[in-house]
Design a protein that fits this description.
The chain has helices at residues 55-59, 114-121, 131-141, 157-165, 175-179, 205-212, 227-232, 254-262, 272-280, 370-384; strands at residues 21-25, 30-37, 42-49, 67-71, 75-76, 95-97, 100-101, 124-127, 144-150, 185-187, 195-200, 217-222, 237-240, 267-270, 285-301, 307-318, 329-335, 341-346, 351-354. The protein is of the alpha/beta class. It folds into two domains: 21-171, 3-Layer(bba) Sandwich (Glucose Oxidase, domain 1), CATH 3.50.30; 176-384, Class I glutamine amidotransferase (GATase) domain (Rossmann fold). The longest helix is centred in the C-terminal third of the chain and has 15 residues, at 370-384.
Length: 385
Amino acid sequence: MPEAIAGPQRASHRFAPASDAALALADGRVFRGRGFGATANASGEAVFTTTMTGYQEVCTDPSFRGQIVCMTYPLIGNYGVNADDDESRRPWISGLVVREWSDKPSNWRSTGTIDDYLKDAGIPGISGVDTRALTRHIRSVGDTRAVLVRGAQETSDENLVTLAQDALLPSEVDVVGEVRETGESVYGPEGNAIHVVILDCGVKRNIVRSLVNRGVRVTVVPYGTSYDRIAELRPDGVIVSPGPGDPANLDSGLDLVRSLLADQRPYFGICLGHQLLARAIGAGTDKLKFGHRGGNQPVRDERTGKVTITAQNHSYRVIDESIPVDGGWQVALRNLNDNSVEGLWHDTLPVLSVQFHPEASPGPSDSNGMFDQFLDLIQSRSAAD
């Protein structure tokens, strides 16, 4: 028989012999494995995402601020990292949990490994974890307080769990204040281009890119910017971006949203922006048991019956029963997994909101046309004026 042809050699960390790191959950569950990334400890909220690619975009998504993220896909890092795939100025996750990571990535765009990337950012990781068991556990108990500890060989499970019970959740920290930019930035063409202001609660670069690619001039302003300042910028429309944490903690943004509605300025709320719109019109929000995170969430348009597969990353939802029924507001989009509200629209106001991420990065691009719908609202408003 001919000799077997050897394929590309890749170091495997799936069954790493050392057990020098641990992930401990507040309910008492402990997962031990091998550390990678930064030699540091992390605390926060343990969550999982089902996205199969885009681990670098996950790391740099501001909506993951304060969370230790478990990747359900078993091999992470196989195509490396590069500066172009960052979705914000830095990685925001507290820690990364994987089954296996690759230290020999294969991709022409790659400039480094996920290990070095996390080291440079000061973020610890743990590999060799049964991520399927961890995910099933989180689905059972819900997103929970957790710690990721390096050099945990001599630390007992009991002590690790005690540390986890003291971990802070994103809802207990001003995470929007941490991730937003502090100044204003302008992108895209000058002149007579449509001008959109984005309120930065944790904006991703692909939101800006999706607009600029459509010939739109974009001004990004930080969360906390007053309505008067936004009006001075004379935008044709306003987007309130995604962001981390509990929307119930952001009362200071509600007057801005109400002013935009009163002014009938075209409004597009994405994820957190959708939740703030709901709160501004009198609806409530509450926390999902284990959130929606990944690139495989089916959403149906209640007006057309069309179903798209969406990218999502959020812990909270708009409470269906709390949406005003007599003010022209209607549920436009629903999640087919749990029937939760995925978008609002109004009978007469130029308003659009979605709970998912039409910009993807990572995830499917099925919903990228939502940006076109927003620009149609702007053009319709301009024609009416």
